[in-house]
Amino acid sequence: MRLLLKFNLVFILIFLLGLAAAGYVSWTLLERNARDEITQNARLLMDTALAARAYTSQQVNPLLETQMKYTFLPQSVPAYSATEVFNDLRKKHAEYGYKEAVLNPTNPRNRAVDWETDLITQFRTNKDAMEIAGDRETPNGRSYYVARPIRITNQACLRCHSTVDAAPKTMLERYGPANGFGWTLNDVVGAQIISVPTQVPLERAQKAFTVFMGSIAGVFIAIGVVLNLMLWAMVIRPIGKLSQFADRVSLGELEIPEFKRQSKDEIGILSRSIARMRTSMVQAMKMLES
Predict the structure, then answer these.
(1) pLDDT in tens, 130-142
(2) I want to staple 34 with a disulfide (CB 3.0 to 4.6 A). Which of 74, 134, 201, 240 is the partner?
(3) What is the pTM for the complete model shown?
């Protein structure tokens, strides 16, 4: 096996090991950053929903108190306003979602489905849980969700949801007496759930990973080409000439021109050693002839 082939085999092995290590580290970091971005977006949207609820509760609801005596206005309900804001968002971004899923809601559109019911059950079982997050498949692709419990901490909420008799008549006229009652203070009745797509950040991470790994591979290949040229010019070629020179001397061609190399590296030292050996052989042959 020639020296250049051995060198390239070792270089390719190092290249593959380095590429694998760089790929593992870079993809781990890029995926982690993408996941952090997804989580941050979900929590930002959750805080946006809470801000919409607070605005409705603090500023819109007081303005509608008089009208509420004559007709129930869902716009005065914080959950309704937050849901409507996100429904408008979904007109352009259908992959995003927000729902205040409730086991026994007043408004039927807020009724929890199977996987939402499981989340609410977890919150009811673990009273200390403040947030649950995870991935799930949706018709619009893979989605990341963040859920927080809806806990009755305000006595004012029970005015509409404790018993049918205590509920405003205008609300009963709109939604009927069948649902949304029997809530108790500090009870978990549902979950606020934000869903955000994972595809876009992960695709960006994949593209960045591809560009990075392509760049690394290109750099390694360029280095390999340069090293091969340097190895051929500085080592392989001089050694080949020295080998031919030594072969001719060993076959008795003592009159061939001297191999000259003035460098002070190892090959230069070797060439001068072979030259001295040739000179010694010439002198020895002359002594034998005389």
Answers:
(1) 999 999 888 878 8
(2) 201
(3) 0.70
